[in-house]
Amino acid sequence: MPDLSLDTRTGLPDALRVLLAEHPREAWEAHPQFHGLVSFWLDRHMMFRRLLEALEAEAQGALDGNRDARRFAAALSQYGGMLVNNLHGHHQIEDHHYFPVLAARDARVARGFEILDADHHALDGILNGFVTTTNDAIQTLTKTGAVTDAAGAFHGDLTRLAGLLDRHLTDEEEVVVPVILKYGADGLG
Asked: Which CATH architecture group holds 33-183?
């Protein structure tokens, strides 16, 4: 069996994407079950991606010399805090409520939910490191005003987080959305 840990996989095996074949991504919005929980849940995922993009833009701007220390520190605090806090809450709801309900609906994809739960535990550690790196960058900015030093360390950690989170969100969407489209959202609201 291939290594399916978050930091090594490039996607989920086809056996766990069986419902995606029945409900391909390009047909999701037209499905009667899309509006409501599915669209709300995908909007949350889009919010995480947009926060990562905002952090990337701020870090790149700082590396390019286009951000002062105060603005960069404020952006890291605001966007970083929103990202981490919302991800933790989102993952708790999924792990304790959504995943158990959805996994029981189709045994063919139950292993996918175990993998996604393991991702959440891996992401907890990565997010803790991200918080430390972000706080270190903010302290550097506050104490020394060294924007490029703070941005360099932060940017590397952000790039790693963004790649892993995108892998997780994509895989999660390809398991969760088809289950809801096929079986409905009853018991999830």
From this structure: Up-down Bundle (1.20)
